Amino acid sequence: MTAILTNLFDGVAYGMLLFVLACGLAVTLGLMNFVNLAHGAFAMAGGYVCMVLVNRMGWPFFAALPLAFVSSAAIGILLERTLYRHLYTRSHLDQVLFTIGLTFMSVAAVDYIQGSSRVFINLPAALQGQFDLFGIGIGRYRLMIIVICGLLTIGLQMVLAKTRFGSRLRAAVDDPRAASGLGINVPQVFAFTFAFGCGLAGLGGALSAEILGLDPYFPLKFMIYFLIVVTVGGSSSITGPFLASLLLGIGDVAGKYYVPKMGPFVIYTMMIVILIWRPNGLFGRTAAR
Amino acid sequence: MSAASDVGHSAQRQARWHYGEVAFWLIVLACGFAFPSRYLIMTDILRLALFAMSLDLILGYAGIVSLGHAAFFGVGAYAAGLLALHGIVNEPVLALIVAGLAAMVLGFATSFLVIRGVDLTRLMVTLGIALLLEALAERFSNITGGTDGLQGIEMQPIFGEIPFDMFGKAGFFYSLAVLFLLFLLARRIVHSPFGLSLRAIKNNPLRAAAIGIPVNRRLIAIYTLAAFYAGIAGALFTQTTAIASLDVFAFERSADLMLVLVIGGTGYLYGGLIGAVIFRMLQELFSTITPQYWQFWIGLVLVVIVLVGRQRLHRWVLYVPNLVVKQVAGRKAVVAVPESDA
Fold first, then answer.
1. Is B282 exposed, middle or buried (0-12, 13-18, 19+ CB in 10 A)?
2. To probe the interface with A, which of B120, B249, B308 has the most A CB atoms within 10 Å?
């Protein structure tokens, strides 16, 4: 019984992490309809920035996290302004090719700068180990992830639903032409959102180094997970991707624990079945876009 | 002349063999005799060319974007490997066909999943299928050999007459023969009414359905055929290298294949063949400059190609040949700029 609960807890932490990693992609792919397979590269960038700051320069872990966000967001906005925006109107094939190219470049570049082996971030002692709560083993680090990611999710939902920027974004996504007719600077809104999504990915990358492992092949290894979150979750709100992340996280952890030999088999099968059953995602809009 | 016969006339003229095509195949054949020390890499190029032609059939002619074409390559590779290893089918040509059929069955089964949904769903489903097969191959390592791959494959002589030699000469000519035969078949298919209907579907599925083309059935048919081609390419891989390992299913293989086709151009069968040659040469060049980081440059090539625009790029590349043709023959270029795709 306690093993189940511990697994559930780990799965929730994993799912929350996936959500932070992938929710930027939910915006670009789901809302802006841009297939960005290079999303994992931004996450990796954040992870490596955090690693360098903490391990090499001796920064405290919690000070390095915001910087991971900022650096990934900066790379994001730079690439968006110079390269990505030319491709919004192009075919999906072009977008796929372009972002695969970027992914390959990022993999080789990080390999060149930091070497190909897996890196670890030195965690403060307060985050290591686990404690028992009513007999359930709870990892401190995972608990922190759940807290941070939970707060982020609530914050995102509030921003999207309550603020002026949130309504601008929703308007720009629903109908870019009408939105720009109303005086909303659509490219600016998209650029900002893209950068913010990249920043979140960077933060997720930094947080995930401990759990998912961080090496130059991170963008390729986890690409499919991000895509699953978005395509299964749909794009009508951030609730869909959030639930999909939790489902995926819990499913993956449970799958690895109970049927270790089946590996990722369960996840892929689930994804294909869901996509066949509901091509727009479990929680997506029913109308075809 | 009525419209129908006009269309037929134009289609027939398109289907006729050009001198350029004959020259192309003669050059390929001549390469086989001119560079006897390069058989291994040339065989590699032929295999890649066949694989790219398979993707071209669905991407260039039917507009199906696939990120998991390696699935069929892998099935073909493992099928050929297992057939040879356990001595089920010893004759290579027969084994090749059986392996191709195995991939074809998978292609037929998964085509129903692929024809549903739009681009994005197709990308995800094809990618998912390839990953699924990779996971399966890893899971059943007692059959596939797991990460070590199938080892100790010994190929019997072709038709019981021509043995595979260690310089790869027999392998090269065998691959070339297979490629040429399958090319002839593909050429016949894309110029047939069936092939023309595929182009109609690619340009506008709704309109194609309105003029009475059974869209889904045509897509299933071409997807199944492409799977057969990819399976043959995979089987050739196993037969000429005597190894099949998990990386036949790898995502990089599918991604590289896209690059091959993008370099060569989609929607005309030579795109895959030319792309394979250029891609392999680029890869060789980059890996001699930077052995570990060649992937960076491959990525850069992809990014640049997309940013410049594929159609513009092909216009530039074909500028000189077209100019020559115009000067010499005094008519419009024979080398057409490939149509825009997907």
1. middle
2. B120
3-class state of residue A92 by DSSP = helix
> Which amino acid, one-letter code, is at B16?
R
CB proximity B132 to A under 8 Å:
yes
Of B121, B296, B299, the CB nearest to A275: B121
Place of tokens 């449970």: A254
Of A101, A231, A261, nearest to B300 by CB-CB distance is A101
pLDDT digits (tens, 9 = 90+) for B171-181: 899 999 999 99
How many cross-chain Cβ pairs, A to B, lie less than 8 Å apart? Answer: 127
Contact B102, B290 (CB under 8 A): no
**Helix (H/G/I), strand (E/B), else coil: A281:** coil
Are B127 and A92 in contact (CB < 8 Å)? no
Look at residues A203, A39, A199, A55 and name the one whose alpha carbon lies nearest to residue A119. Answer: A55
Its ipTM equals: 0.80
A259 near B CB under 8 A: no
Query: From A289, which residue of chain B is nearest by alpha-carbon distance?
Result: B118
Kindly list the residues from chain A whose CB atom is less than 8 angstroms away from the CB atom of residue B255.
100, 104
Residues of B in contact with A93 (CB under 8 A): 59, 65, 119, 341-342
Closest by Cα among B95, B82, B112, B97 to B219: B112
Question: Where do the H-state alpha helices sit in B39-145?
Answer: 39-59, 70-85, 92-114, 119-139, 141-144
The C-alpha angle A259, A117, B73, rounded to 5 degrees, equals 60
Compute the distance between CA of residue B200 and CA of residue B213 in angstroms, rounded to an integer.
Answer: 9
For residue A287, name the pLDDT band (cuts at 50, 70, 90).
very low
pLDDT tens, residue by residue, A220-253: 888 888 888 888 887 667 788 888 888 888 888 8
Half-sphere exposure of A29 (CA within 13 A, CB side): 35
Determine the Cα angle at B203 with ends B199 and B205, to 5°: 95
CA distances from residue A132 to A2, A125, A141, B13 in whole angstroms, order as listed = 10, 17, 14, 79
| 3 state SS of B175 | helix
When pLDDT is averaged across residues B60-71 and rounded to a whole number, the result is 89
Angle at A230 between CA A228 and CA A232, to 5 degrees: 60
Any A CB within 8 A of B308 CB? no
Min Cα distance B246 → chain A (Å) is 15
pTM of the model: 0.84
Write the CA distances from A112 to A44, A117, B259, integer angstroms.
14, 11, 23
Comparing CB atoms, the residue among A86, A103, A220 nearest residue B307 is A86
CA distances from A99 to A39, A82, A222, B258 (A): 8, 14, 15, 12
B60 Cβ neighbours under 8 A, 6+ residues apart: B261, B266, B267, B268, B271, B338, B341
Gap between the Cα atoms of B72 and B137, Å rounded = 13
- Which positions in chain B touch A223 (Cβ < 8 Å)? 251
Give residue-wise pLDDT tens across range B122-169. Answer: 888 888 889 888 888 888 888 877 777 787 777 788 877 778 877 788
Min Cα distance B184 → chain A (Å) is 28
Strand A136-139 to A130-133 pairing: antiparallel
Q: Do B132 and A268 touch (CB under 8 A)?
A: yes
